[in-house]
Write a structure and sequence with these properties.
The chain is of the alpha/beta class and 309 residues long. Helix content is 31%, strand content 17%. The site of iron/sulfur cluster (SF4) has 14 residues, from loops.
């Protein structure tokens, strides 16, 4: 997968944004520069990941999408977005028209107060929700919508609310991803208000999945957990854990050398260790019986004999 930042500004001011506060001052984002970056990607590349800032704000986005499709006709395009621009139906349709594209839209809460409280941008919830609905209406062959919810101190209490909103009002999404926050950029600056430890997250995450698998049955979309080292989760939830952080951003504390599941574990974001230390990570003396997949990003698909949690 190739990751291409396409714009260095955003129309939200999310308290847990992992981009640095001076991000808008750097980089070249005109169409010619972006095309040159695409032209350097080898022809067989299968996934292009567009990020920002907010990529949908780039004035070059539509011609850039057309260029990607022409240059890399089989590549799946993924776009990390706050969803707001897609509340304009013609813009949503223009982006989806190229096909083979997945929109990964951030929801920061399940109500205007919860969402806009995190984005610090009044009206952002209304637009994000309208954007997701517009994209879902365009859903067709190769067009998918994923919803992403970042867990911070501000949002941890809204797991159930976000699930209810997504399963009730956003039918047709491909997946709902709960992402443990990264402690860098604005998030590092705002650590006192948004900072979260794995110890604080574990109980609410465990309770959410326990209630889900108990009362509600199977979710009507895929559920994923990103940025969780295995020992921060009950074994019953390991099947949801994905390894998605770049290798250069993670580290294994010294205790991990004694851990029986290290080869399946994401490791720990370096900035988390810098802020909170390694005390919460406990090596497993022996591995449970695991059901494994060949996907290195999602190596564990089950733990034999374990119930959730
Ligand atoms: S002890 Fe280290 S390797 Fe083992 S699960 Fe925890 S973070 Fe991963």
């Amino acid at each position: 997968m190739r990751c291409i930042p396409v714009w260095n500004r955003c129309n939200n001011k999310c308290a847990m944004c992992s981009n640095p506060p001076d991000y808008h001052r750097f980089g070249k984002y005109d169409l010619a520069s972006l095309k040159a970056r695409i032209n350097r990607i080898k022809a067989g590349e299968t996934e292009i990941y567009l990020t920002g800032g907010e990529p949908s704000l780039s004035p070059a986005l539509l011609p850039l999408l057309a260029h990607i499709r022409k240059r890399l006709p089989r590549a799946r395009i993924m776009m990390d977005t706050n969803g707001r621009m897609f509340s304009y139906p013609a813009f949503a349709a223009g982006c989806a028209a190229l096909g083979n594209i997945e929109f990964q839209v951030s929801l920061c809460g399940h109500t205007p107060a919860a969402h806009d409280g995190v984005t610090r941008t009044p009206g952002s919830f209304k637009q994000a929700l309208a954007g997701i609905k517009n994209l879902l209406a365009l859903k067709g062959a190769g067009i998918d919508v994923e919803v992403r919810f970042v867990l911070t101190r501000l949002s941890l209490g809204n797991l159930d609310g976000v699930y209810r909103l997504v399963s009730g009002s956003l039918q047709g999404i491909k997946s709902l991803v709960f992402i443990f926050m990264e402690m860098e950029g604005h998030a590092g600056v705002n650590l006192k208000s948004v900072g979260l430890t794995y110890g604080q997250a574990r109980g609410p995450v465990e309770k959410f999945f326990s209630r889900l698998e108990g009362a509600r049955g199977k979710a009507p979309f895929e559920l994923k957990l990103y940025h969780f080292p295995l020992c921060t989760l009950p074994q019953g939830l390991w099947k949801y854990a994905w390894r998605t952080l770049p290798r250069k951003e993670v580290s294994f504390p010294a205790v991990c050398s004694r851990c029986a599941v290290k080869k399946y574990c994401l490791g720990v974001h370096k900035d988390y260790l810098r802020h909170f230390g390694a005390a919460g990570f406990v090596p497993l003396a022996s591995a449970p019986r695991l059901k494994l997949s060949p996907n290195v990003c999602h190596p564990i698909i089950g733990v034999t004999g374990e119930k959730c949690p």
